Amino acid sequence: MIAKVRRGKRVQGLLHYLYGLGRFNEHHNPHIIAGFDAPAALEPSLRADGHRDLTRLSALLTQPLALLGDHNHQRPVWHVPIRAAPEDPVLSDEQWAQIAAVVMDRAGLAPDGDPDAVRWIAIRHADDHVHLVATLARQDGARPEVWNDAYRLRAACRAIEQRYGLRSTASADRTAARRPKRGETEKAARHGHDEPPRTRLRRHVQTAAAGARTEAEFFARLEDEDVLVHRRFSHYDPGQITGYAVALPDDRTKAGQPVWFGGGKLAADLTLPRLRHRWSSTAGPVSGRDLSERTIRAYLRTTVRQATDRSQTADSFFAQLEQAGVLIWLRHSIREPSRVTGYAVTVPDHYDPDGGPRWYGGAKLAADLSWEALSHRWRTGQVPPGETELTAEERRSIYEDVAKAAALATAEIRRHTVTAPHTARDACWAAADTLRSAAYATGNRHLHQAANAYDRAARAPYGRTPRPTTAGHRLRTAARLLAATSNSKDTALQVFTTLVVGLMTLIDAIADLNHTQHRSAQEQAARSAATHLAHASPEHTMPPWVPDQSAAPRPTSLAMADFPYPWTPPVQPGTPATKVRKKKGSQRKGPTL
Question: Can you count the helices (H) and strands (E) in the chain?
Fold first, then answer.
């Protein structure tokens, strides 16, 4: 059962709508079933033309507002539709009357036994819902408090579900994303769109946030996807950005202006302060400690190419690389020390057998990324042809490294499920970034559906920000790796089973965690995501996964679960534990460019 609070200014217009035919002739036999007085005494009489005379009822509801005078609420009409699920049994008028009384009592507007409470009525004109109408003024001249009334209504609905055996719904834990309004859905249908703009924008923002390390990169990724971005600046410090809003180019008002949505209107964790906290806590550069050489080479090539596309000068090019967390080595001319004649790049914690950084010259990454080709491009403005797609071996290596990060996060989540479940919330939050980036990198529709279904399972209840953990950092690094090496032009890409199995195991562990914490909505979201992941393999080698909810997993079985990886990640080959002593007489030179 769901209830939604709406506020208005005129009770007369609302009554005319509730006693009318409705927008689609869906109102049948509207009548009052409960209220501040007997329903028979409040029911409007019929006029000679067959319509209801609402004058007396409107006057009775608005009389207490005159006692408050200038202290009235700006929108004093309180309107709450209460709807049961389609599979719920049809309730009688007496049952709906009891439900309405419970809701008004839980909301604090008409407590049981209070003769001076607000005036209210409950109108029913359909089998599955009723409408509560109240004016926010007590009959003793006091002004009622309606702060946080939506959360009190959610608790009342859950209590009613248990009492009448109705379908159980989620609690108001602030983990659900902002749903599109009715007008947005109808507008999208009129224009032939599959989904409302709010849903499309949320997906774009989540994908951009998953692949970004900084605020500037986040906005750049949104603009690359043809999303309009509006930055809000501080009144006290004009150079400080305090918020943002996004819009679609084809979503306009009647006046031709874009329809803007702030980050908080999309989801609770997409506000700029929450995004900044995410980037500041786990925005370290991609490290070569847990990645294969093939993956690092593919990541560097795509990162250097992206920096080249966004720059027109050498200084801008190097600034883009530093912003991406890439280490740079410059080779200077012997005759003119200030002139750069070559460059090489690498990632932190990536070493060669001698213990030094393993550098990759631009020409070794791709022919169009050599220093000569880049200099010619900046000088003439001509873009040389280059190979932009990754090879099958490189994509396989990337997916294997992402699957390894998912397996390590799975082990940590299962380790904390019984002992410290709150410690695993950061990994649950970061898993959403990995799913979004995997869907964007592969273009697989099942991964997109899995990312959409998992959305609610990612957020911690009541807007809490999880403490950063190693597992969360690994998953966000994997998300940035997938986002940096993705290619939207590659339509023939198939998802490797290794990646899908790793993500399925991770989501399964997160579902068990939410089950242990009795968070049914988050558990259901994770189970639904795992079901979509089961269909993601192009070979369909994995059968559809059906969760067994007949028996809850015991804490002992969770604590003794087998881990796919050891408790402590093994030291990767090539990582120097100590400083390597160089041979006598050897001189280390710069990298081969």
Answer: 22, 14
384 Cβ contact list (under 8 Å, min separation 6): 367, 368, 373, 376, 377
**Do 527 and 458 share a structural domain?**
yes
Chain CA centroid to CA 44, Å = 47
Residue 28 sits in the same domain as residue 60: yes
Of 248, 282, 316, which closes a domain? 282
In Å, how far from its chain's centre is CA 421?
Answer: 21
Contacts of 315 (CB under 8 A, 6+ apart): none
Dihedral angle computed from the Cα positions of residues 454, 466, 480 and 455, in that order, rounded to the nearest 10 degrees: 10
Residues 296 and 274 in one domain: no
pLDDT tens track for 99-113: 999 999 999 999 999
- In which element (H, E) is residue 78 found? strand 77-83
Distance CA 351, CA 293 (A): 10
Burial code (b: 16+ CB inside 10 Å, e: under 16) for 527-540 equals bbbbbbbbbbbeee
- Distance from C-alpha of 229 to C-alpha of 219, rounded to nearest angstrom: 7
By CB atoms closer than 10 A (0-12, 13-18, 19+), residue 18 is: buried
> Which domain does 583 fall in, by range?
284-388+571-593
- Residues 509 and 417: beta-carbon distance below 8 Å: yes
Name the pairing type of β-strands 31-35 and 129-138.
Answer: unpaired
Q: What DSSP element (H or E) covers 132?
A: strand 129-138
**d(Cα 354, Cα 292) in Å, to the nearest integer?**
17
- Whether residue 169 is contained in a domain is answered as no
What's the rounded mean pLDDT across residues 387-402? Answer: 81
pLDDT band per the 50, 70, 90 thresholds, residue 555: very low
* Residue 102 covered by a domain: yes
Residues 459 and 551 placed together within one structural domain of the fold: yes
> Would you place residue 589 in the very low, low, confident or very high pLDDT band (cuts 50, 70, 90)?
low
> If you write DSSP's letter for every residue of 214-273 in order, what string do you get?
SHHHHHHHHHHTT-EEEEEE-SS-TT-EEEEEEE-TT-B-TTS-B--EEHHHH-GGGSHH
Q: Same domain, yes or no, for 552 and 578?
A: no
Non-local (6+) Cβ contacts of 472 within 8 A are: 282, 409, 426, 427, 429, 430, 466
Q: How many domains does the chain have?
A: 4
Residues 312-338, mean pLDDT to the nearest whole number = 91
Cβ proximity of 531 and 557 under 8 Å = no
Residues 69 and 139 occupy one common structural domain: yes
Asked whether 80 and 118 are in contact (CB, 8 A), the reply is no
User: Where among 282, 311, 334 does a domain terminate?
Assistant: 282
